[in-house]
Design goal:
- This protein is of the alpha+beta class and 254 residues long.
- The chain has 2 domains: 97 residues, no CATH class; 150 residues, no CATH class.
- Strands 7, 8, 9, 13, 14 and 15 form a 6-stranded antiparallel sheet that branches. A 5-stranded antiparallel sheet has the order 6-5-11-18-17, covered by helices on one side.
- Helix 1 packs antiparallel against helix 2.
């Protein structure tokens, strides 16, 4: 990356060094540099690789200077963009280096690593409560149920309305961010329904639109919400659709 950046900047410098020296009749010569010395303009010709001079009266100095300034400004903008891109890449590499290789969800806040804990999710039916094992389907049931996690508020507080999470997965699964529904001493992750005859399963959750970026490594991602999140209870989730298999990492926006 650094070598490519230096090559690109060198190319920009060489291109910026060549100027158009305009004459009064609208023509121009390509020059490396020029100097106004009294009533004479001295310039280094790119074509002939030598210094030459002409009367100032035959040069359109205003047009020459305007184009030279515009070219320099454009080169400065490109160089700044390269610098910002390189700085962003360095910052991301530094953040990624802090993320453990173990499966889980992580955040970097003020340069420090924070690890989210997996919530104790369970499925509640009319017959009782069934603990949800990590990515292991629950016994088949009929009718309606809810997936819940204990507590009315998460212990993991975030003061950023567009939080970024690093996600190390054991295997390729679906992932996302959802808004939790408050309840008495619990928060509802999703509604579940299995039809009596077809046994088709439906899961309804309040998903948050997210951006997902795959990072170097196996099943390593960075995710963040597309829009600012209002204050409330949320969770990062990993799941298999229509399987009632899910891991939940809860957090709250303050």
């Amino acid at each position: 990356m650094r070598v490519a950046l230096l090559i690109a900047l060198s190319a920009l410098s060489l291109a910026a060094a060549n100027l158009k020296l305009y004459t009064a009749d609208g023509d121009f010569q390509l020059v490396r540099e020029y100097k106004v010395e009294g009533d004479t303009v001295r310039f280094f010709s790119v074509e002939r690789a030598e210094w030459e001079e002409v009367p100032l009266s035959v040069i359109d100095l205003k047009r020459t200077q305007a184009e030279s300034n515009a070219k320099k400004d454009a080169a400065d903008v490109k160089a700044k963009a390269y610098d910002e891109e390189a700085a962003a890449a360095r910052e991301q590499r530094a953040e990624i280096a802090k993320i453990p290789q173990d499966s889980g969800v992580y955040r970097i806040e003020n340069g420090q690593l924070r690890t989210l804990k997996v919530a104790d999710a369970s499925v509640v039916t009319s017959k009782g409560r069934t603990a949800l094992q990590i990515l292991s389907p629950i016994p088949v049931f009929l009718g309606k149920a809810t997936m819940e996690i204990p507590g009315e508020t998460s212990a993991f507080a975030i003061h950023d309305d567009r939080p970024e999470f690093y996600f190390q997965m054991d295997s390729q699964q679906s992932l996302g961010i959802i808004k939790l529904k408050p309840g008495k001493k619990i928060r509802v992750v999703e509604q579940i329904e299995i039809m009596p005859i077809t046994k088709e399963m439906g899961e309804t959750r309040d998903s948050v639109p997210i951006f997902t970026k795959q990072l170097p490594g196996d099943n390593f991602y960075k995710i963040w919400p597309q829009d600012p999140l209002p204050k409330g209870e949320y969770a990062v989730v990993e799941y298999l659709e229509s399987k009632v298999e899910m891991r939940v990492w809860d957090f709250r926006i303050e």
